[in-house]
Every structure is written in structure tokens, then in C-alpha cells.
Amino acid sequence: MRVGIGYDIHRLVKGRKLMLGGIEIPFEKGLDGHSDADVLIHAICDALLGAAGMGDLGLHFPDSDAAFKDVYSIRLLESAWKMVSEKFPRIYNIDATVFAEAPRLGPFREAMAETISRAMGISPASVNIKATTTEGLGLVGSGDGMAAMCVVMIGAI
């Protein structure tokens, strides 16, 4: 068994749709980045790649590559999981936390878990998503950004 941790943070800006956990969430701002800036998916990818000892998201999908401009991050997750699963085909669990002041994410957790599990070909029961605020502190607390952290456990069969 191997464990990996992932983290990502992006600014919120007007004029972009908010993609989180592979789904569009109604909100007046979206995350700014080279891809769709889905902090949850990026944290999961980094956790998977880290657990497998395969570097990080930027190594495999650099923001200097035009091919990844505005890419739907679920495509990155599918690719990252394909690479990782060749060495470690068993995923025990994904446990992720999204840090955001708004919008409320509770109503979207199940849809995010379903989208993530479908992209990886695993059971939705293997994907746990939590959301919390930072009580008004820092970039996230001011409403200027969102972050996510993830831990995964993978293994060989």
C-alpha cells in the first residue's frame, strides 16, 4: 500500500465558470488557471501521482503546454489514473477536503464523487469529499480563492 497527498489553490475571478469535482457549480465567479482550474481534481491527481512516486500534475500536464489550455480537468484525472493504475491498480480510498467560503458545496458532494468515480472506474463509495471554510482567514477566507487537499491510498493487487 502507498499513500499520497495532494494540494491545490486557485484565485476566484469573474467571467469563468466554477468547475469543482468535475461538475459545474452555479456561482458568480470561477477558478482562474491554465486549465479549468478545478482545485479538487488537481489535488486528487497530485495525490495519486505522489503515491505512485510519479511526480506531480505540473510534470505531466505543464501549464506551458497549449494542449492543456482550458482542459476539462476530469481528462487530466483520467490520464493520471491510467498512468498510476499500470503500477498500482488498486485504489483503497480518496479522502478530499475543499476549502471555500462560498458557495455551499454540500448539495454537490454526491455528484462530484460520482463524476470522479466514473472517470476512474471505481466505486463512488471509495470517494469521500468534505467541505469547510477557513473562518474568514487568508485568501480563501476573504472569498478570493478556493483550495483543496486530498489523501489517497493505492496498492498493487
CATH architecture label name: 2-Layer Sandwich
CA distance, first residue to last residue: 10 Å
Number-wise, the strands total 7
- Compressed to H and E, one letter per element, the order equals EEEEHHHEHEHE
Q: Percent of residues in beta strands?
A: 25-35%
CATH superfamily: 2-C-methyl-D-erythritol 2,4-cyclodiphosphate synthase
Task: Determine the fraction of residues in helical runs and give it as a percent range.
Answer: 25-40%
The low-confidence runs, each spanning 5 or more residues with pLDDT under 50, are: none
Q: What is the CATH fold-level name?
A: 60s Ribosomal Protein L30, Chain: A
* Strand order, largest beta sheet: 4-1-7-5-6
CATH class: Alpha Beta
Biggest sheet record = 5 strands, mixed
Structural category: alpha+beta
Structurally, the number of domains stands at 1
Question: What value does the Rg take, in angstroms?
Answer: 15 Å
If helices are DSSP runs of H or I spanning 4 or more residues, what is the number of helices? 5
Overall pLDDT score:
95
Explain how this protein is built.
This protein has a five-stranded mixed sheet. The chain has a two-stranded antiparallel sheet with strand order 2-3. Helices cover about 30% and strands about 30% of the residues. A hairpin with a 2-residue loop joins strand 2 (about 20) and strand 3 (about 25). The longest helix is centred in the middle third of the chain and has 15 residues, at about 75-85. It has about 160 residues and is an alpha+beta fold. The chain has one domain: 2-C-methyl-D-erythritol 2,4-cyclodiphosphate synthase (60s Ribosomal Protein L30, Chain: A, 2-Layer Sandwich), CATH 3.30.1330.50.
